């Protein structure tokens, strides 16, 4: 599985890279939405893990743009805040799930990853 993670926190990027890599997945990361959206437009990813709060663009806007570029891309929103309105908005725009930091890695492994189909390149 090829996974893209967009989060401005480099520790989160390292943590998710280590986790997904240990399960045999390829991981690409960025701290900004511009790189992430560029990659979504030019590459095929099986999953996007996307922070709701980014310094350069609102995560919901990135979700909407990523779904326009790749309507079948599964997106899991991640947040360190309890923001019910943002979570509801994310689901309205096609998010598969929303995870609160710190992550429950068993939940990701057992509930999210099994829902993700491997996409053809």
Describe this structure in words.
- With 121 residues, the chain is an alpha/beta fold.
- The protein has one domain: Response regulator (Rossmann fold, 3-Layer(aba) Sandwich).
- Helices cover 42% and strands 20% of the residues.
- It is built from five helices and five strands; from the N terminus they run E-H-E-H-E-H-E-H-E-H.
- Helix 2 packs parallel to helix 3.
- It is globular and about 35 Å long.
- The mean pLDDT is 92.
Instruction: State the secondary-structure class.
Output: alpha/beta
Oligomeric grouping of the chains = single chain
CATH superfamily: Response regulator
Give the second-level CATH assignment, the architecture: 3-Layer(aba) Sandwich
CATH class: Alpha Beta
Mean pLDDT: 92
For the largest sheet, list the strands in their spatial order: 2-1-3-4-5
Q: Termini separation (Å)? A: 11 Å
Over all CA atoms, what is the radius of gyration? 13 Å
Please provide the count of β strands. 5
Overall geometry comes to globular
Helix content: 40-55%
Helix count equals: 5
CATH fold-level label: Rossmann fold
Biggest sheet, open or closed, and with what strands and sense?
5 strands, parallel
Number of domains: 1
Stretches where pLDDT falls below 50 for ≥5 residues?
A: none
Strand content of the residues, in percent?
15-25%
User: Order of SSEs, N→C?
Assistant: EHEHEHEHEH
């Amino acid at each position: 599985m090829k996974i893209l993670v967009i989060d401005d926190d480099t520790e989160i990027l390292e943590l998710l890279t280590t986790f997904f890599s240990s399960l045999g997945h390829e991981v690409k990361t960025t701290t900004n939405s511009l790189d992430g959206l560029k990659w979504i437009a030019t590459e095929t990813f099986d999953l996007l893990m996307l922070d709701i709060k980014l310094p350069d663009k609102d995560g919901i806007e990135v979700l909407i743009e990523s779904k326009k570029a790749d309507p079948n891309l599964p997106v899991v929103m991640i947040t360190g805040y309890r923001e019910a309105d943002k979570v509801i908005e994310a689901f309205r725009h096609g998010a598969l799930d929303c995870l609160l930091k710190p992550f429950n890695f068993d939940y990701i492994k057992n509930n999210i990853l099994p829902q993700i189909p491997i996409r053809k390149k």
